[in-house]
Amino acid sequence: NKNLLAELKPSLGIIFGSRILNNDVIEMFNEGILNLHPGLLPENRGLNTIQNAVMKNIPQAVTLHFINNEIDMGRKIFTELIDVNASDNLFDIQKKITNTEMKIIKNLFEDKIDLNNFYTLETKKPLNSIVGKEFKDNFPKLFDNYKNNYTKILNAYKNNE
User: Fold this and answer.
1) Angle formed by the axes of helices 133-148 and 150-160, to 10°?
2) H/E element holding 61?
3) Cα 78 to Cα 84: distance, rounded to the nearest angstrom
4) Which of 9, 12, 49, 131 fits as disulfide partner to 39, beta carbons 3.0 to 4.6 Å?
5) Strands 61-66 and 76-81
6) 10-24, 78-92, 98-112, 127-141: range with lowest mean pLDDT
């Protein structure tokens, strides 16, 4: 509710993904709005981040960033990479992502994160596409291959950072 926000005059907002917020709502927060994005940014923008990481052979991650008027493109604070084991299923990965988000929130409240240390997420990387039937049909094999090669995927990403 914009009236409530105008009355409260909040300094900082935190969201865990959201529909697209209008610029006038974003500007009501003096310091900005932080988003905990369940994916590697800028490589994994948008929805279906777990599946798209599998499809793109990139690490699972949580990225803390300020939002702006573009989807998953605000000032990036940091990314925390997620370990994936060959025995993990999709629920295990989602649980790891959620636990990482909770750890980040705890660190925010304990002032262990420097919000002034950021860089801009300027990218030409497109938003994730909608996962179609062909992908869904092939996903079990892709997912097994992804998990079995995850250490290589993670090391390749770290070496290119």
Assistant:
1) 80
2) strand 61-66
3) 19
4) 49
5) antiparallel
6) 127-141
Looking only at the bridges linking them, the beta strands covering 76-81 and 12-15 are unpaired
What's at 33, amino acid-wise? I
DSSP of 6-54: HHH--SEEEESS-SPPPHHHHTTSSSEEEEEESS-TTTT-SS-HHHHHH
- Within the chain, what is the greatest distance between any pair of CA atoms? 53
Contact 29, 23 (CB under 8 A): no
The average pLDDT across 43-54 equals: 93
Cα–Cα distance for residue pair 54/160, rounded to 1 Å = 18
Write the pLDDT tens digit of every residue in 60-96.
999 999 998 888 888 899 999 999 999 999 999 999 9
